[in-house]
Amino acid sequence: MTKALEKPPFLKSNGKRTTNQDGPAWTIQSCAEVLAPLLENDNSNTLAPSQLDAIRHLCFLSSSDSGHGESSKIVKHIQSNLNTLRDRRFRSKMAKFINDTLADCSAVGYGQKEKSQSESTYQDVLKTFGGQSAYRDAVQFQTRTNERKVIHLRKNRVSGVRINLLINDYKCGGTRDLSAGRVNQVWSHKYDLHQNCPPEWNALPAEAKTILAELLSWQNLSKWEFNIVEVANLTADPLLLVGWALLCEPMAQEAMNLSIGACVTKDAKSYDFSQFITIDPRAICNFLREIERKYKFENPYHNNIHAADVTQTTHCLFQLMDEKYLKRIWDPITIFSLLLSATFHDVGHPGTNNLFQEHAMTPLAIQYNDEAILENMHSAVGHNLLLGEDKREEWDIFANWAQSDKVNARKVMKASILGTDMSHHFTQVEELNSLIGKVRGEAEDISQDNTGADQLDNQDQPILSILAQNMESPDELEEYNLLVDLITKFLLHAADISNPAKTEDLVKYWADGALSEFFAQGDKEKEMGLPISPLCDRDTVKRQDSQIGFIKFVIQPSFDLLGEIIPGVKKVVVPRIEKSLEYWEREKLSMSMKGDV
Description:
Strand content: under 5%
Shape: globular
Number of helices: 29
Helix content: 55-70%
């Protein structure tokens, strides 16, 4: 028998009121007040966190007779104003979050009377915001969930989901058997569909799950051509799913494949963090969910999709390294911490840059004394959730880590996020370049002293190879460790600015998003009488010129340097940058011939 799930915080109700962890208790009236603006805004296409919470609570405030009657009235009032909710993406997003509450509700298990009343209001809300098709999807999801619940292997006390895993293993392996020992192995692994897949995954349509299971496989996540927009088109939670797939691999991939009835296989290459550190998939998903909620979805560029993209790109840079160098130079805690920091490196970004904050003397600028204003804020938000005053048991990723490991993780995350400040870009490149030259020179001296090798041979040797060979040299250890720290920090920075190094469709997508955000800032600066920041004046900045300049002066030198460290970057990424530059130069020529430049 599987262990019952604990009620999520927003479901812990006493009938007419539910507790909001960050504010007062929810009531029918407070839900209505929070949702009222939706009926007044014809152009809404996003939901504020408070509106999502109101919908969730409204679904479950019906657990008492009086609550059910009042909430039904609210739903009927919203239904009468559906003409303001015709935006298809908006309705889809509404339906998705309501579906999530159904997944949570299914896991909790209410009394029969409460469940009947709660589901009645749930159905009304879902039909209102998501339409009949969303309601049918939810019913099908509920039916599949109930079917899985009643399948048990009583003899071995193993759930049907776990038996399905055994059967899939047997079909894929051919010679594997279903012995008691194998059953015990799966039991100890604690695989259960609803405990190991986040509700956001469980609520997805079957077709979306199948596509995402392929997109979020280790093999695809390790490709430079990975398209995060494809993921975002299938789910409103790209950061949560990408973060889960990377930080909880291979468990996440196994759970995804199991949920769609696919064969469960393990990639030969894998971080497999759980072999070295404590990995709690539920805590990780809860943290990612909370972080993703704090990104401003309305930002054209600095949003949750960008965060997911940077997380995947950071992983890909690791995978472009030779595995023997990766494992010798970077320990699992450092890799895990860097990937985790990527998820919140831009959390809470206001859509305006540090110059705007400084010139406008915003509260953030005052708080951080005009020094790496946004980067300090991003780091503080994430670390407060993980280790500070906002830490909660449900997302305490480091709960069972040793104190020294926590300190090391924080050191990596803090330095890497602060290293994404573009005002320090050229200093960072110069410092890294200088130390690479010094380490290469010392390696040549060691090589000549030991073997008499030709100096030119070492000039072509990748920096990672030099580091791996000489990491234990007592005379050079401090300097080599410093270089490893610089490279680690630079990896996140490189991933953060990597958009012009991607495929052409992504190059255009991110360029348009960035310029849209920049121009909105420039408009605000004009309105406030502030100096207009570089690239933010829509009247003077040309799309093609802005990208050509950024590639030539920032992107190419950065990735050429990274190519000295990681040969895979020189082979895979640098040619992409050259293609991007050619594309923008063609675009500029085309516009010039039309007389638009």
